[in-house]
Amino acid sequence: MNTGSIAIIGTYAPRQCGIATFTQDLRSAMLSARPHLDAGVAAIERDMEGHHPDEVRYVLDERDRAAYARLAEALNDAAPGAVSLQHEYGISADVMAPGFWTPCAD
Q1: How big, in percent rounded to 5, are the helix, strand and coil portions of the chain?
Q2: Is the separation of the CB atoms in 20 and 44 below 8 Å?
C-alpha cells in the first residue's frame, strides 16, 4: 500500500456536471494540503467527452459493467493508500452497485 497516494474515482473534467466539478476541486484541495500526494483520477464517462487532464489515469465507460472490474483490478495492483469515490445516483448506479467493490476485497 502506498500511503502517499490516493485514487480518486468520479466524473471529471471535461465532463460538465456538479460531481465532476466537485471531484476536480476535491483533488485540488488535497494537493494544496499535501503537494507531494500522488492523486490519480479514474474519470467516469458516458460519451467519452474528450481530452482529459494529465491526472486522469483511467477512463471508465459508466455503461460497461466489465470496466468496473478492470478498474478494481487496476486499483488492487496500484495499491493506493486510499480511494475516494464520488458517486451520484443515476451515474453508473445500475452497473456499479452489484459488486464493484468485491474485486477490491483482500
Answers
A1: 35, 25, 40
A2: no
Rounded CA-CA distance 55/26 in Å is: 13
User: Nine-digit cell at 93?
Assistant: 448506479
The answer to whether 39 touches 53, Cβ cutoff 8 Å, is no
Element (H, E) at 15: none
The three cell numbers locating residue 37 = 500526494
From the CB of residue 97, how many other CB atoms can be counted at a distance below 10 Å? 12
CATH assignment at residue 95: 3.40.50
Domain of 45 in residue numbering reads as: 2-104
**DSSP one-letter code for 101:** T
Domain count, the chain: 1
In whole angstroms, give the CA distance from residue 29 to residue 26. 5
pLDDT, tens only, 24-79 = 999 999 999 999 999 999 999 887 767 889 999 999 988 888 888 899 999 999 99
